[in-house]
Design brief:
heterodimer; A: 67 residues; mainly alpha; F1FO ATP Synthase; elongated; B: 403 residues; alpha+beta; 2 domains; 5-stranded antiparallel sheet; 3-stranded antiparallel sheet; 10 strands; 13% strand; globular
């Protein structure tokens, strides 16, 4: 890790992931409010999408610290 | 009457939580003297502490100079297999057949042979690589003379020895496995003994988790043939869950960062990769190499991407688990580091106490969050594994779908 530059990179990755997961969470809440009867399905889909975004963000963070 | 009963129930629940909170609080407070009493050193000693606590080690460090030794099983090309307890190192001062203990971690003296007559060392030091390359180089000092140290290697390529030791992580993992056996066997017995009756105690806790995982996660994602994969996904889920929870216990049988170790998560993800690859049907492979309903030039473009995704999927699994658990441990340890920072590395007692109280409050909150993360990460690993298995064994009907 080359000091602060890698930390800035990791921070940027977290920024992107935060925006993405925030969008997912917000939209999922809207969807659940609109159709509470399918909240189970929405939750599962939300977690899967969040996990995929998180995977990409973790790639970036691990990359920032290792390369 | 009914209302009163309900309130009473909540009251006992509240009392239990309050007891748990105070327990965690005092557990956290007990860390202050241990950290504050460490010798003041220049630079940033807390960074080393954080790294030492999340890394694997060959002995359990309880507090001060109290250690629990663990068996070392070491193989080297020239000396063969050697088995001894890590107490033989006498906390890093004794050389045992060319092996030394560097801050709880076994390393071997480079080019070791009997004629070196090296029995004691004064200290071990990590230095930046003098060649300007990556990583650190380790040295053991004896009367001012430096001896280079070798880290273990996996295939005897980069160094002369392999470490098969029952390390801190392995020990904690074995404890988790034994715990799982005890709990699940007792639950099974409870089912046999209380057949036809409502579950009770531990049985009802495990039944809730088990049926939730089966009905909400595994069944809908794998599909009608889920029963074949149920034991695998359940084992993954409960193993990760127990290891995560073991990592949250700050004292002896816990305190190891099991699922925050890349080797552990890689082994788990490798199982997923193997199961998905070997249970993939014709449609699964067709969708990877020659997907139907896609123009031929695009197929050439997509095939390599799809092929890479076979490996990327388990890779994200292993990185996700590793990063989440390690991040949690690092945050907790950094909060404990406030004792160092506010205490000015042991020069300011009042600051250390203030930092300790502040750190304890934050650590309690973080511990509760980590408790949630422990369940969440086990759940996500199991969910994604069942999703990947489901996509590999799914029966498609393209002929109807694309006309």
């Amino acid at each position: 890790m080359t000091g602060t530059l890698a930390a800035v990179g990791a921070g940027l990755a977290v920024l992107g992931a935060g925006l993405g997961i925030g969008q997912i969470g917000g939209r999922a809440m809207e969807a659940i409010a609109r159709q509470p009867e399918v909240s189970g399905d929405i939750r599962t889909t939300m977690i899967i999408a969040a996990a995929l975004i998180e995977g990409a963000a973790l790639f970036a963070i691990v990359g920032a610290f290792f390369f | 009457m009914h209302r009163f009963m309900k309130n009473d129930k909540y009251r006992t629940l509240y009392m239990k939580f309050r007891a748990l909170f105070f327990l965690l609080f005092f557990l956290g407070l007990s860390a202050i003297p241990a950290y504050a009493s460490e010798k003041a050193e220049p630079e940033k000693p807390y960074i080393d502490y954080v790294m030492e606590h999340i890394a694997d080690a060959n002995e359990f460090h309880l507090f001060g100079s109290v250690h629990i030794p663990l068996p070392c099983i070491l193989y080297s090309k020239d000396a063969g297999l050697e088995v001894f307890m890590s107490s033989a190192f006498e906390h890093g001062h004794q050389v045992v057949n060319g092996y030394v203990l560097d801050h709880g971690d076994v390393k071997r003296i480079k080019g070791w042979n009997e004629s070196m007559h090296l029995e004691h060392i004064d200290s071990t030091v990590a230095k930046a690589n003098p060649d300007g390359g990556k990583g650190l180089q380790y040295f053991a000092y004896h009367h001012g003379e430096a001896h280079a140290l070798e880290k273990p290697s996996t295939l005897l390529k980069s160094s002369s020895w392999i470490d098969f030791s029952i390390s801190k992580n392995v020990f904690s993992m074995l404890v988790a496995v034994v715990l799982m056996f005890v709990i699940f066997i007792s639950v099974r017995r409870a089912y046999a003994r209380r057949e036809g009756q409502a579950p009770r105690g531990l049985q009802s806790l495990m039944e809730t988790i088990f049926t939730f995982m089966r009905d909400e996660v595994i069944k809908p994602n794998i599909g009608p043939r889920y029963e074949r994969y149920l034991p695998f996904v359940m084992s993954l889920f409960f193993f990760i869950l127990f290891c995560n929870l073991m990592g949250l216990i700050p004292i002896f049988p816990g305190s190891a960062n099991i699922t925050g170790n890349l080797a552990t998560t890689m082994a788990l993800a490798l199982f997923t990769l193997l199961v998905v690859t070997f249970s993939g049907n014709r449609h699964y492979w067709q969708h990877i190499f020659w997907m139907p309903g896609v123009p031929v030039p695009i197929r050439f473009l997509l095939a390599p991407i799809e092929f890479a995704s076979i490996f990327i999927k388990p890779f994200t699994l292993l990185i996700r688990l590793f990063a989440n658990i390690t991040a949690g441990h690092v945050i907790i340890l950094c909060l404990v580091g406030m004792v160092f920072i506010l205490g000015d590395n042991g020069r300011n007692l009042g600051g250390a106490i203030g930092g300790g109280v502040l750190a304890t409050l934050f650590v309690v909150v973080m511990n509760l969050l980590e408790l949630f993360v422990a369940f969440l990460q086990a759940f996500i690993f199991a969910l994604l594994t069942s999703l990947y298995i489901g996509s590999a064994i799914e029966e498609h009907h393209h002929e109807e779908a694309h006309h």
